[in-house]
Write a structure and sequence with these properties.
heterodimer; A: 115 residues; mainly beta; six-stranded mixed sheet; 10 strands; 45% strand; B: 114 residues; five-stranded antiparallel sheet; 11 strands
Amino acid sequence: GAGVSQSPSNKVTEKGKDVELRCDPISGHTALYWYRQSLGQGLEFLIYFQGNSAPDKSGLPSDRFSAERTGGSVSTLTIQRTQQEDSAVYLCASSLGGSGGYEQYFGPGTRLTVT
Amino acid sequence: GENVEQHPSTLSVQEGDSAVIKCTYSDSASNYFPWYKQELGKRPQLIIDIRSNVGEKKDQRIAVTLNKTAKHFSLHITETQPEDSAVYFCAAENYGGSQGNLIFGKGTKLSVKP
């Protein structure tokens, strides 16, 4: 079946502009996660959605970052007034459940470059 | 909250040798510990995981051990092959806690020389 998809695959934007990154999880997966991976670095947790529960936003680095998940499926990560330090690969993952030790399936990522 | 430390950050071995990557975690309530492999330019993929009621788990050339008392877990790869070259991430989850999300280590870049 189809895996997790993300769009766009690459995004170049000017400093100060807003960007929207999209994630389509695997059908039937109730949990969705966003991570940020800077060049050669680890996976930084950003936000986690589980079903209809309030999202865990504890990893968002600033109030310029926000995310929503409509209809329990597609999610959009929005970065307002982008800064150069926002340049990274943004990875989305989904799993069958939230907490409970379920495998997370990752999307291919969106490479964001802020000039 | 949970903190996961991983070492070494880089590891180079000869083909056929074993490789060991170690992680420590801070939250004694954590009970799920997966390992992900990320090949260059690709997405991370789960290779093995272990839960807190088990001390060791094996899958062919890969094994993971868990010491809950010491709060550390390790990935062991035997008979390494060039295709094992990748970045490996450990992670911990407290799925009984308030977060319920994975906290990842910073990764280990493994190079297997033919």
